[in-house]
Amino acid sequence: MAKKKLTITIDNGRAEAIEGLVSSSAAGPGSVSAWIEDAVAAKLEQAERAQRALDWIVARAQAEHPGEWEKALEAVRASDERHGFTSGGEGQSAA
Description:
The protein is mainly alpha-helical. Helix content is 65%, strand content 0%.
């Protein structure tokens, strides 16, 4: 897999904790980059699972209560506008 070098800024305490975990790993010293990549992969998988669950809920709500779903979605959009939130695009999970 191709790699891309990034520069990140992280809290000193967290950076030291990561370095400590990496250096004291039971598997032997590792790389901070590999540790962070594993953490990011886990977070991305969590976000993907959450999106799939949200898509399922939206599809079920639309199928079971299509008119109510549209009313609820419009109420959320109106609330977002009042609070200055902007939509990242249209779609099932826009709410």
